[in-house]
Design brief:
Elements: E1 7-10, H1 14-25, E2 30-33, H2 84-97, E3 104-105, E4 110-115, E5 122-126, E6 131-134, E7 136-139, E8 146-147, E9 154-156, E10 160-162, E11 179-183, H3 187-196, E12 204-208, E13 215-216, H4 233-236, H5 239-257, E14 282-283, H6 287-292, E15 297-299, E16 302-307, E17 309-312, E18 317-319, E19 322-325, E20 329-330, E21 349-351, E22 362-364, H7 374-390, H8 398-403, E23 405-407, H9 416-442
Parallel strand pairs: 1-2, 1-7, 2-3, 7-22, 9-16, 10-19, 11-12, 11-19, 12-15, 13-14
Antiparallel strand pairs: 4-5, 5-6, 8-20, 16-17, 17-18, 21-23
Length: 449
């Protein structure tokens, strides 16, 4: 058997750490390059990598029972919904517990990743000018760091910032006593609108959005972890039937959970999408109440900026001193040459949501649309990747790979436990393929001892 491939991991955020841990325990030699000076990725406030989207009041919107690793939980007494400081410290303790730091090079930004001609694998260029060759590449930089800006025509007299640069009501722009318009209706937009509407912060807060959302309060509930095996009928139901059952039952559960919240339409917001899996739920304890009480005012989508005012889609205009675009992030893998990976740059087609369908030594983890925390799902992805790299899992035919390839950000939000179940089933099939191939090679008459 050939030796395991030398593998490079790009990024030492949550997904990168679990990639390092899984590779190491699988006996696969690896090196991780991290652009910043600490582990933890976006949970490190002001990360020197320049890619953190954390703000000072940021905290997890899934409880510690859901945002744990399979084999590394939270200490007793931890808050149910940790803030960024607790999150960053916990990721640091994960790196220390599994001895990952010696394999991580900090302040080492990868600026280019190219195919090695004639031999496969990758050649990386670092910002320092160093070149590194590897046999396999795991990309774990996520998709929550490159700002997506709304289309803004005209100009505003006051500051216009993206939520990625927001720290608190006074940093980087002092919003105290000012009229602030927050654009967007995702988790970050709602969190910032709530914070800015607190006493002593902005004078007035407008929340501008083009389409509706479904809302949930923060819940400590017995929700299955992505690593938990399916039980009962869900285990043997075919995938399409399982997903159809989930799509029928889950929205009813959500409606019961948020029955005590004001209806979005009653506080001026657009109605939620008819398809509950079109967007990720907004987890927020206060925004609907603030809208109902008038501390935040809902407005339709932006039409244009008009000096000291903003014009909205309904033709109304409002005086605005500061505009905060909380309009999300786009997928960005700037170290790959344009067109190398296919697609339009806004999404990425991956086999089983993790492997490039043409480059079978390239894996992208932690880029997903899922109803769960990202890194427990990344953990399950790496439990699929490591056997492939070791040769314990054999890929199916290229045709089968293409059939099981999808745009990771272009699909409806899905159940992480179902995804893990399907990965495990394919892993079992691939192990059988590898075993059959091994037996065929050593069978009498094949010319080998």
């Amino acid at each position: 058997m050939s030796p395991p491939p030398f593998t490079v991991v790009i990024g030492a955020g949550p997904s990168g750490l679990v990639a390092c841990k899984t590779l190491g325990e699988s006996g696969i030699p690896y090196q991780c390059f991290e652009a910043g000076s600490r582990v933890g990725g976006q949970w490190v406030l002001g990360n020197s990598s320049g890619t953190s989207s954390a703000y000072r009041s940021l905290r997890a919107n899934t409880h510690t029972g859901m945002c744990r690793f399979q084999d590394f939980g939270w200490p007793e007494g931890s808050p149910a919904f940790p803030g960024h400081e607790e999150m960053a410290a916990w990721f640091g303790s994960y790196a220390d517990h599994f001895g990952l730091r010696p394999h991580i090079r900090f302040d080492a930004r990868v600026v280019r990743a190219e195919r090695r001609e004639g031999q496969g694998g990758w050649r990386l260029a670092l910002a320092s000018g160093e070149r590194v060759d590897c046999d396999a590449l795991v990309v774990a930089v996520g998709n929550l760091w490159s700002p997506r800006w709304p289309e803004l025509s005209g100009a505003l007299d006051g500051p216009v910032i993206h939520a990625r640069d927001y720290m608190d009501p006074k940093d980087p722009v002092d919003c105290t006593g000012k009229r602030v318009c927050v654009v967007g209706l995702g988790n970050t937009a709602c969190e910032l609108a709530v914070e800015l509407s607190q006493p002593g912060a902005a004078r007035e807060v407008l929340l501008s959005c083009r389409s509706g959302q479904r809302f949930l309060p923060r819940l400590v509930a017995p929700v299955p972890h992505p690593s938990d095996p399916l039980t009962g009928p869900l285990r043997w139901l075919p995938g399409p039937a399982r997903r159809a059952l989930f799509r029928a039952v889950f929205p009813r559960m959500i409606d019961k959970l948020n029955a005590s919240l004001p209806r979005p339409e009653d506080v001026g917001l657009p109605p939620p999408p008819k398809d509950p899996f079109e967007k990720r739920f907004v987890v927020n304890d206060h925004v609907l109440d603030r809208l109902r009480d008038g501390q935040i005012r809902a407005k339709p989508g932006l039409r244009r900026l008009c000096g000291s005012k903003v014009e909205f889609a309904d033709g109304s205009r409002e005086e605005v001193d500061v505009l905060v675009a909380a309009t999300g992030y786009r997928l960005s893998l700037p170290f790959f040459a344009e067109g190398l990976l296919g697609g339009d740059g806004e999404d990425l087609d991956l086999y089983r949501g993790v492997m490039h369908p043409r480059f079978h030594d390239l894996f992208v983890i932690g880029v997903t649309k899922a109803i769960c925390s990202i890194w427990p799902r990344s953990e399950q992805q790496m439990r699929f990747v490591a056997p492939l790299l070791r040769g314990d899992y054999r890929l199916p035919s290229q045709r089968a790979i293409d059939r099981a390839t999808w745009p990771v950000l272009g699909v409806p939000y899905g159940n992480c436990q179902f995804y893990t179940h399907d990965l495990r089933r394919e892993l079992a099939r691939g192990r059988r393929r590898a075993a059959w191939r091994s037996r065929a090679r050593t069978a009498p008459g094949n010319g080998r001892p």
